[in-house]
C-alpha cells in the first residue's frame, strides 16, 4: 500500500483519539500515552503535507515511512487491548505498558533521527540536482553558437553556417505544417487525452495508423500539450523503439526514469521484487511513449507497472492494448491545405495554378500527409507540363491489389525519379544508415565527396535540395556539447522514406546491386548474401548492422569495386570482417558502435590493405597500440575519433603519426576522455590543415612545437577544461584562420606574441573566465574580424576594436532551452 493510502485511512488520527482516552484511564500507560500524543500531534501536519503534495518517494524513503505506518497500525491494536483490559489484571497491564513504551520509543526515534536525516538528504539532493541541471543548461545554448561558428570556417566557406540556418528553417516549416493538419490533429489529441488522462483503468493505450499518416507527429504534439504535461507533472519519456531495438537498454532507460535514477548502468538487472514493489507504490503519473513499435514480443518486455504507456505503431497489438486511436487520413480540405503549403508556400490554391492538376495530384495522394508533403515539394516551381506528367505517373502507380506500403512507395518514387541523377543517387545512399539514428553531417558529406567525385560545397547543395524536397530533415542538436553529439548538425529521415531508399536500392540481382544493405540490425549476415557469395559483388556501398561479431561469424565475400564500408554494431567486442582485404578500392570506412561502452576491435591488421582509404570515422571503439599493429594509411586525408579510448593508440610517446598518416589533412578527436597529451609527432604532420580536439576533459597540455604545423588553418580546442596554457609556438602558425578555445575554463592567458597571427580571422573564447587581460600584440591582428566572448571579457577587446573598426565582438547571450530535458 502506498504511503498516501496509509495516511488517507487516518490511522494516526484514530490512534491519537485512543491515546487521549488511555491517558485518562490507565495509570501504568499514562506517561507513554501522553508522550505519544505529543509525537502524533507533531506528525499530523507532516502526514497532511505528504498526503496532499503528490510527491512520489524513492524506494528507501517509502520503505521507512511504510514501517512507521505499520508501527502506528500496531499502536491502534495495542491501544484497543489497553482500553479493553481489566484494571485489576495487573500482570497483563504491566506487559501492555512495556509495549506502549516500546511504541513510544519507535515513534520518537523516527522524529528525532530519521526525519532530520530525510530533510538533510532532500536539501543535499536538491542542491546537487539543481547544480547539475543548471550546469547543463548553462552550457547548452552557448555551445550551440560556439561550435557552429567554429565549423563555419571549415570546409572552404560558410556552408556549415548555411546548414544551421537551414535546420532552423525546417523547424519553423514543421511548426507551420502542423497548423494545416487542422481538426484531425486536435481530434486525435482529444481522444488520446480521454484514454490516458481521464481514465484510470487504462494503463496501455495506442496510436495506430499506416506509415506516413502522422502517428509520431500526433504523439509528439500530445506530449507538448499543457494539460498533459500538467497531469503527468512533466514526467514524460519519449523513446523510439524501431524494428531492431536494443531491448535491454530500453528497459533500463524506462526503469531508471520510473525510479528517478536516469544514470543506471546498462548492465543493471531489474528484479521481479522491484517491479512488484514499484508497481504497487509509484502510482500512474508517469507517461512512457514507445514510438515505432514493430513487435509484440518487444512491446511486452517494455511495459512496466507504475506508469502509463502510449504505444505508437502500424500494428494494433489487441492482446496488450485495450484502447487505440486510429489516425485517419486527411480530409479533402485538410489535404489541400497541407499540399498547397508545401507546393506553393500558402494554405490555399493560388490564382495562377491549374486547379484541375492540383486537385488530381491531391486526390492521388489519398490524404496521406507524408505523400502530400514529399510530392508537393517535388512539384514546387515546376512547369504545368511537368505537373501533368507527374499526375499521369501517379495515376499509373496505383495497383488496387497491392498493399498500402507498395502503393505508398510507388507514389513517393515519382518524387525521387524526377530528381537529377546525382541527387537521386545521394538519396538512395541514405538507406545505408540504421533506422531512427541521426546521421552526423560530416559522415554524410565525406562519404558523398569520396564516392560521387564532388566538392564539399556541392555535396551540401545536394543535401539542401533533398531537404527542400522533404526527403530529409536537417536537425540542429539543442544539446550542444552533449557527450553523444559528435557534431552539431545531423540528418534524419522518416522511416518510410528510408524504406523507400531501400526498396529502390534492392532492385535487381543481389550481386549486381550498387548498394548492399542490411535493412535492420540482425544477429548474423543475411542468408541471401551467403547463398550468392560464390560470385563477386558489384556494390559500391556495403552497409552491415549486427551485434557482436566473431571471426567465424563472417562469410567470405569479394568486394573488388566497393568504395564505402559502413559497419554499425552494438557490442563491447567486434572482429573486423576479413573481406576488408578484398576491398582494394575502399575510400571511406565508417565504424559506429551503438553500445554504451567502448568496443575492442580485433583483426585491426586488415587496415594494412587499405591503401586507397581517404576518410575514416571511428565511434566508440578502443584504438589499438599502433606499434603492435603496423598500419600505414598512405592516402588517408580525414580521420575522426569520437567517444573512443585513445590512450593505447595516441598516448604512446613513440607513436609516429606522420609515418602512419602521411597525407592526413583533417584530424578530429571528440569526447575522448582518456586523452591526456597529444603525441609530439603530430608537429611533423606537414599537410595537416584542420586540428579539432573537443570535449577531451583529460587533456592537460599540447606539444611545445605545435607551431611547426605550417599548413594549419583551423585549431579547435573547445571544452578542454584541464588545459591551462597554450604553447607559445602557436604564434608561428602563420596560416591559422580560426582559433577556438571556448570553455577552456582553466586557460589563464593568450600567448604574448599572438599578434603574429596575421591571417587569424576569428577567435572563440567564450567561457574563458580566467583570461583577464590581452597581450599588447592583439592590436596587430590585422585580419581579425570576429571575436566571441562573454560579457565579463568583452571590455578587454574594446580598445582593440577602436584600432580595428572592422572587428565584430559577439557577446554571448545566456539563452536557455529546456525542452530537451524531457527527451
Automatic annotation (TrEMBL):
One of its GO terms (biological process) is defense response. GO terms for molecular function: ADP binding; ATP binding. Residues 1-149 form the RPW8 domain. It comes from the Eukaryota. The keyword DNA-binding does not apply. InterPro entries: Apaf_helical, LRR_dom_sf, NB-ARC, P-loop_NTPase, Powdery_mildew-R_dom, WH-like_DNA-bd_sf. Keywords: ATP-binding, Leucine-rich repeat, Nucleotide-binding, Plant defense, Repeat. Belongs to the disease resistance NB-LRR family. PANTHER family: PLANT BROAD-SPECTRUM MILDEW RESISTANCE PROTEIN RPW8, TIR-NBS TYPE DISEASE RESISTANCE PROTEIN-RELATED. This is RPW8 domain-containing protein. It comes from Carya illinoinensis.
Amino acid at each position: 500500500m502506498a504511503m498516501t493510502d496509509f495516511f488517507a485511512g487516518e490511522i494516526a488520527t484514530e490512534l491519537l483519539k485512543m491515546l487521549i482516552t488511555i491517558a485518562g484511564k490507565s495509570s501504568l500507560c499514562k506517561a507513554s500515552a501522553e508522550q505519544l500524543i505529543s509525537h502524533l500531534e507533531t506528525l499530523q501536519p507532516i502526514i497532511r503535507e505528504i498526503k496532499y503534495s503528490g510527491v512520489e518517494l524513492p524506494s528507501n524513503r517509502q520503505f521507512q515511512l511504510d514501517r512507521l505506518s505499520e508501527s502506528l497500525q500496531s499502536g491502534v491494536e495495542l491501544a484497543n487491548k489497553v482500553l479493553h483490559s481489566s484494571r485489576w489484571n495487573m500482570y497483563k497491564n504491566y506487559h501492555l505498558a512495556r509495549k506502549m513504551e516500546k511504541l513510544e520509543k519507535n515513534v520518537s526515534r523516527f522524529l528525532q533521527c530519521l526525519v532530520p536525516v530525510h530533510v538533510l538528504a532532500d536539501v543535499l539532493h536538491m542542491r546537487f540536482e539543481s547544480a547539475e541541471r543548471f550546469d547543463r543548461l548553462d552550457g547548452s545554448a552557448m555551445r550551440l553558437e560556439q561550435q557552429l561558428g567554429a565549423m563555419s570556417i571549415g570546409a572552404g566557406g560558410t556552408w556549415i553556417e548555411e546548414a544551421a540556418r537551414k535546420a532552423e528553417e525546417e523547424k519553423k516549416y514543421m511548426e507551420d505544417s502542423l497548423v494545416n493538419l487542422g481538426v484531425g490533429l486536435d481530434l486525435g489529441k482529444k481522444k488520446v487525452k480521454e484514454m490516458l488522462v481521464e481514465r484510470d483503468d487504462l494503463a496501455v493505450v495506442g496510436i495506430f495508423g499506416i506509415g506516413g499518416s502522422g502517428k509520431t507527429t500526433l504523439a509528439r504534439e500530445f506530449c507538448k500539450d499543457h494539460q498533459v504535461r500538467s497531469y503527468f507533472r512533466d514526467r514524460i519519456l519519449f523513446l523510439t523503439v524501431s524494428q531492431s531495438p536494443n531491448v535491454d537498454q530500453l528497459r533500463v532507460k524506462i526503469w531508471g526514469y520510473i525510479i528517478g535514477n536516469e544514470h543506471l548502468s546498462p548492465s543493471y538487472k531489474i528484479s521481479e521484487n522491484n517491479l512488484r514493489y514499484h508497481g504497487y507504490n509509484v502510482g500512474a503519473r508517469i507517461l512512457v511513449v514507445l514510438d515505432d513499435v514493430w513487435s509484440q514480443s518487444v512491446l511486452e518486455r517494455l511495459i512496466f507497472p507504475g506508469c502509463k504507456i502510449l504505444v505508437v505503431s502500424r500494428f494494433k497489438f489487441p492482446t496488450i492494448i485495450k484502447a487505440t486511436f486510429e489516425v485517419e487520413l486527411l480530409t479533402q480540405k485538410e489535404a489541400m491545405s497541407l499540399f498547397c503549403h508545401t507546393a506553393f508556400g500558402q494554405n490555399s490554391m493560388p490564382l495562377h495554378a491549374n486547379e484541375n492538376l492540383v486537385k488530381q495530384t491531391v486526390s492521388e495522394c489519398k490524404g496521406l500527409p507524408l505523400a502530400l508533403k514529399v510530392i508537393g515539394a517535388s512539384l514546387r516551381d515546376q512547369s504545368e507540363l511537368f505537373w501533368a506528367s507527374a499526375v499521369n505517373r501517379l495515376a499509373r502507380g496505383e495497383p488496387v491489389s497491392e498493399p498500402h506500403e507498395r502503393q505508398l512507395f510507388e507514389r513517393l518514387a515519382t518524387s525521387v525519379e524526377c530528381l537529377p541523377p546525382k541527387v537521386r543517387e545521394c538519396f538512395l545512399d541514405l538507406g545505408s544508415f540504421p533506422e531512427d539514428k541521426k546521421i552526423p553531417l560530416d559522415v554524410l558529406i565525406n562519404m558523398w565527396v569520396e564516392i560521387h567525385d564532388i566538392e564539399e560545397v556541392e555535396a551540401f547543395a545536394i543535401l539542401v535540395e533533398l531537404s527542400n524536397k522533404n526527403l530529409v530533415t536537417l536537425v540542429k542538436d539543442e544539446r550542444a556539447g552533449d557527450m553523444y553529439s559528435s557534431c552539431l548538425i545531423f540528418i534524419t529521415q522518416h522511416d518510410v522514406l528510408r524504406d523507400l531508399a531501400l526498396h529502390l536500392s534492392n532492385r535487381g540481382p543481389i550481386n549486381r546491386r550498387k548498394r548492399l544493405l542490411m535493412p535492420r540490425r540482425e544477429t548474423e549476415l543475411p542468408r541471401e548474401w551467403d547463398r550468392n557469395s560464390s560470385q563477386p559483388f558489384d556494390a559500391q556501398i556495403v552497409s552491415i548492422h549486427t551485434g557482436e561479431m566473431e571471426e567465424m561469424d563472417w562469410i567470405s565475400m569479394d568486394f573488388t569495386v566497393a568504395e564505402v564500408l559502413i559497419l554499425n554494431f552494438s557490442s563491447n567486442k567486434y572482429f573486423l570482417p576479413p573481406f576488408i582485404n578484398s576491398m582494394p578500392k575502399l575510400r571511406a570506412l565508417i565504424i559506429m558502435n551503438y553500445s554504451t561502452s567502448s568496443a575492442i576491435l580485433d583483426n585491426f591488421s586488415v587496415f594494412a590493405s587499405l591503401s586507397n582509404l581517404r576518410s575514416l570515422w571511428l565511434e566508440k571503439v578502443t584504438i589499438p597500440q599502433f606499434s603492435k599493429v603496423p598500419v600505414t594509411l598512405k592516402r588517408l586525408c580525414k580521420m575522426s575519433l569520437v567517444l573512443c579510448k585513445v590512450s593505447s593508440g595516441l598516448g604512446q610517446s613513440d607513436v609516429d603519426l606522420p609515418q602512419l598518416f602521411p597525407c592526413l589533412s583533417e584530424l578530429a578527436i571528440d569526447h575522448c576522455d582518456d586523452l591526456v597529451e597529444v603525441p609530439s609527432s603530430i608537429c611533423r604532420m606537414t599537410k595537416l590543415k584542420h586540428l579539432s580536439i573537443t570535449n577531451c576533459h583529460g587533456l592537460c597540455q599540447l606539444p611545445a612545437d605545435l607551431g611547426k604545423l605550417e599548413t594549419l588553418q583551423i585549431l579547435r580546442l573547445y571544452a578542454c577544461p584541464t588545459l591551462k596554457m597554450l604553447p607559445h609556438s602557436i604564434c608561428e602558425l602563420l596560416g591559422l584562420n580560426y582559433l577556438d578555445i571556448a570553455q577552456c575554463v582553466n586557460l589563464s592567458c593568450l600567448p604574448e606574441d599572438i599578434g603574429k597571427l596575421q591571417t587569424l580571422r576569428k577567435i572563440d573564447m567564450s567561457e574563458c573566465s580566467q583570461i583577464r587581460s590581452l597581450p599588447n600584440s592583439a592590436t596587430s591582428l590585422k585580419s581579425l574580424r570576429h571575436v566571441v566572448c562573454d560579457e565579463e571579457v568583452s571590455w578587454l577587446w574594446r580598445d582593440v576594436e577602436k584600432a580595428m573598426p572592422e572587428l565584430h565582438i559577439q557577446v554571448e547571450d545566456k539563452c536557455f532551452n529546456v525542452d530537451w530535458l524531457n527527451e
